[in-house]
Write a structure and sequence with these properties.
Number of strands: 7
Structural class: alpha/beta
CATH class of the largest domain: Alpha Beta
Low-confidence stretches: 238-246
Number of helices: 9
Shape: elongated
CATH architecture of the largest domain: 3-Layer(aba) Sandwich
Radius of gyration: 20 Å
Largest sheet: 7 strands, parallel
CATH superfamily of the largest domain: SPOUT methyltransferase, trefoil knot domain
CATH topology of the largest domain: Alpha/beta knot
Length: about 250
């Protein structure tokens, strides 16, 4: 499994140094940082990175999170705050369950937030999955570098060898088409399109749908979209006009 580490506005030089050291420990070389509050090549960072200091010059520094996510097949945002009742964006899975899901993919992007306030709701909504390290205590807010160590250990050193799903998974384009059809249907029905988008994207990624299952769902949502246009005569924005023939 290829891993990519993403850090949004990290604030501590020492933490960054420890993270580079961890990346060296676990042989993770793809690191993307969004607007850090310090220079990645700062002497303090390099000192605490030890032999991981050699990775500092290869860190990609960008201005927006989208730049780090644009090539991601499966992106996982981390949060200590989760809501099992009403907050759609913070519907989180456990670390163990995330490892099970991630093991079905060849590449996974892990997104960590600021030491002070974590990731914003907007940032969380950009990920395919939300994960929480829950240790069963009243205080599960971890130091950033500690959280990175725990997640990397579970994914790499303890990661499951057996795939949770057999067969080729539906590709990201297929899932995006399904989600876009659902958003247009939701808009016509007066539902919150953002909630629908986040919910369906998370559900589909948790479910690990196969290529065959994705094809059925795609045809279903495309058919519903077409039927609604025919029945109501509503000029919905079309997501299907330029769908590649190979998606059929």
């Amino acid at each position: 499994m290829r891993l990519k580490l993403v850090f949004v506005e990290p604030e501590g030089k020492i933490n960054m140094g420890f993270i580079l050291r961890l990346a060296k420990n676990f042989d993770v070389r793809d690191i993307c940082v969004v607007t850090p509050k310090f220079n990645i090549l700062d002497e303090e960072v390099l000192n605490f990175a030890a032999k991981g200091a050699e990775l500092a010059q290869h860190v990609k520094v960008v201005d927006v999170l989208d730049e780090c996510l644009k090539d991601s097949r499966m992106s996982v945002c981390t949060t200590a705050l989760y809501d099992a009742e009403s907050d759609v964006i913070r519907q989180s899975v456990s670390l163990k369950h995330m490892v099970s899901i991630a093991s079905a993919y060849d590449s996974v992007t892990l997104v960590f937030g600021r030491e002070s306030v974590g990731l914003t709701r907007n940032e969380l909504s950009k990920c395919d999955l939300i994960m929480t390290i829950d240790v069963g205590s009243e205080y599960n807010v971890f130091n950033l570098s500690h959280a990175v160590a725990i997640v990397l250990y579970e994914l790499i050193a303890v990661g499951t060898q057996q795939r949770p799903v057999y067969g080729k998974l539906a590709d990201k384009d297929r899932i995006n088409y399904i989600v876009n059809f659902a958003k247009e249907l939701a808009s016509h029905l007066g539902l919150n399109t953002s909630d629908v988008e986040v919910t369906l994207r998370h559900v589909l990624n948790k479910a690990l749908i196969t290529k065959a299952e994705g094809r059925v769902l795609y045809r279903l949502f495309k058919g519903l979209h077409y039927a609604l246009k025919q029945c109501d005569g509503v000029a919905l924005d079309s997501v299907s006009s330029e769908v590649d023939a190979n998606t059929e």
